[in-house]
Amino acid sequence: MCLSIPSQVVTIHEGEEFVTVDTMGVKRKVSSHLMTEPLELGDYVLIHIGFVMNKIDKADAQESLALYKEIVSKLEQEENQA
Predict the structure, then answer these.
(1) What string of DSSP letters covers 8-66?
(2) Are the C-beta atoms of residues 30 and 43 closer than 8 Å to each other?
(3) Which of 33, 36, 40, 57 is least surrounded by CB atoms within 10 angstroms?
(4) Does the CA dihedral 24-7-31-4 come out positive or negative?
(5) For residue 62, how many other CB atoms are within 10 A of its CB?
(6) What was the pLDDT predicted at 4?
(7) Which residues contact 62 (CB under 8 A, 6 or more apart)?
């Protein structure tokens, strides 16, 4: 099973089929050439092996990110207790 963390488009590389996304504070350049609709700054997307697969709704993305942050926080707490 593969989980995809929502990523926000922070840079559009004009003349290229690439965007830079921010995934929970980690920025990376990914290919957007599989997208059939244009991407805009601030869009939330799902990435698979370096390719933007689709855009997702902002509210859904923020809800998912909140859940991931909660999971990370709980894992960190357990690690500190060990």
Answers:
(1) EEEEEETTTTEEEEEETTEEEEEE-TT-SS---TT-EEEEETTEEEEEE-HHHHHHHHH
(2) no
(3) 36
(4) positive
(5) 13
(6) 85
(7) 6, 44
pLDDT for the residue 2:
65
Here the tokens at position 76 are 């960190």
Tokens 């207790």 — which residue? 81
Question: Which pLDDT value is given to residue 54?
Answer: 93
For the segment 10-39, what is each residue's pLDDT rounded down to a tens digit?
Answer: 999 999 999 999 999 999 999 999 999 999
pLDDT by residue (tens digit) across 31-72?
999 999 999 999 999 999 999 999 999 999 999 999 999 999
